[in-house]
């Protein structure tokens, strides 16, 4: 196992810069997730760690070696791709054994490593089958098995669950997390799915347009997003982000579309343009709340999502208990004062 240091790494394809001096430190044994919208540079960064893309600037260190100019095979990493990239004409067993055979590993060692991977991944019944005879989830497991047998210092995953249906995705994400708890191999995992990032990561790196927006533990990002982008990206349903103006004449409040929303002590100036952030689950029904009219009710069984309008504004509230709400009803909603996020409307930074 090894730590990985990505230090001021930049990437340009021709004249187009797609990564701008990105730095991430990954501790030995840590599970780090790179998350961000499509096109933000996640795969490019991962492929640079793998040695599949050249580095335009900065350094990548694996263990105590700078690997910028090492070919992939010498980096002691194993990568799992979204499309699995299995050999169609090899069986499950042969797929898993192939990389070791190429390296002329002792056949006894190959057999032992394949057996261990098959045990870990519950692949024993399928060892003689070909990829086309497997379900998507089983193929995904073979791709992971192929990575495990190599006993690498670092696992690299690029959106490995994107081709699976929703239910299997949830199951496989638990399996990968469990696998990491067992093997404790340093892992870099790329996804565009913030729920995957939240549930799997020790540490999340939120990226946008080739830059890092914030790095932190999942709940740190959830509880204290550093800017509007992270606030809107992390959490489902998304945080309400309401544009308004700070009023500090009397009791502080934010004027949003003519309605005054309560807020505690804060760093904004009177009259400053701000964005008031409150998660749907942090709006409570309270007689002193802000009146808002229900437009749509979405019950999921375990919770109810309610879309509301107040003046020109709109917001979403989430309730875990059952209510008999109807479109057209008016609710008075009070944001929980300890759960309000305030951002500068111009810079988007947390205040
Ligand atoms: N080989 C390439 N040549 C030119 N541009 C590329 C190449 N690979 C990726 N890009 C561009 O780099 C940016 C980042 O891509 P990528 O790392 O694949 O994003 P992500 O994995 O976050 O969706 C995108 O704008 C993409 O079009
Ligand atoms: Mg990608």
Can you give keywords for this protein?
351 residues, alpha+beta, OB fold (Dihydrolipoamide Acetyltransferase, E2P), 5-stranded antiparallel β-sheet, 19 strands, elongated, binds adenosine-5'-diphosphate
Describe the overall structure.
The chain has eight helices and 19 strands. With 351 residues, the chain is α+β, with helices and mostly antiparallel strands. Strands 6-7-8-3-9-10 form a six-stranded mixed beta sheet, sandwiched between helices. It has a five-stranded antiparallel beta sheet with strand order 13-12-11-14-19. The chain is elongated, with a radius of gyration of 24 Å. The two termini are 40 Å apart. The model has no long low-confidence stretch (mean pLDDT 94). Bound molecules: adenosine-5'-diphosphate and magnesium ion. Adenosine-5'-diphosphate (ADP) is lined by residues 13, 18, 36, 38-44. Residues 4-234 form the ABC transporter domain. One of its GO terms (molecular function) is ABC-type transporter activity. This is sn-glycerol-3-phosphate ABC transporter ATP-binding protein UgpC.
Shape: elongated
Structural class: alpha+beta
Classify the helix fraction into a percent range. 10-25%
- N-C termini distance: 40 Å
Alpha carbon gyration radius: 24 Å
CATH-derived architecture of the largest domain: 3-Layer(aba) Sandwich
**Oligomeric state of shown chains:** single chain
């Amino acid at each position: 196992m090894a730590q990985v240091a990505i230090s001021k790494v930049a990437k340009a394809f021709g004249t187009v810069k797609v990564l701008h001096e990105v730095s991430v430190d990954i501790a030995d044994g840590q599970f780090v997730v790179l998350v961000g919208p499509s096109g933000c540079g996640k795969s490019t960064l991962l492929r640079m760690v793998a040695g599949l893309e050249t580095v335009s600037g900065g350094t990548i260190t694996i263990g105590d070696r700078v690997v910028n100019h090492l070919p992939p095979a010498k980096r002691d990493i194993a990568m799992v791709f979204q499309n699995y990239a299995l050999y169609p004409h090899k069986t499950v067993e042969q797929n898993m054994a192939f990389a070791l055979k190429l390296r002329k590993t002792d056949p006894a060692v190959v057999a032992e490593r394949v057996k261990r991977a098959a045990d870990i991944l519950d692949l024993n019944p399928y060892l003689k089958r070909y990829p086309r005879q497997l379900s998507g989830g089983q193929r995904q497991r073979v791709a992971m098995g192929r990575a495990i047998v190599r006993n690498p210092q670092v696992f690299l995953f690029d959106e490995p669950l994107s081709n699976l249906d929703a239910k299997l995705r949830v199951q496989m994400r638990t399996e990968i997390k469990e696998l990491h708890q067992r093997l404790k191999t340093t892992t870099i995992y790329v996804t565009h799915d913030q729920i995957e990032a939240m549930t799997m990561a020790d540490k999340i790196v939120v990226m946008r347009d080739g830059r890092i927006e914030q790095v932190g533990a999942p709940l740190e990002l959830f509880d204290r997003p550093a800017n509007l982008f992270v606030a809107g990206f992390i959490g489902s349903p998304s945080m309400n982000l309401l544009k308004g103006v700070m009023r500090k004449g009397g009791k502080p409040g934010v004027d949003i579309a003519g309605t005054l929303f309560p807020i505690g002590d804060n760093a904004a100036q009177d009259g400053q343009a701000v964005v008031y952030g409150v998660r749907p689950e942090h709006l409570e029904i309270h007689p002193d709340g802000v009146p808002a009219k229900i437009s749509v009710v979405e019950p999921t069984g375990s919770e109810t999502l309610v879309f509301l309008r107040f003046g020109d504004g709109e917001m979403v509230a989430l309730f875990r208990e059952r209510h008999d709400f109807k479109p057209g009803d008016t609710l008075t909603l009070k944001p929980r004062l300890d759960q309000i996020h305030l951002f500068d409307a111009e810079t988007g930074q947390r205040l």
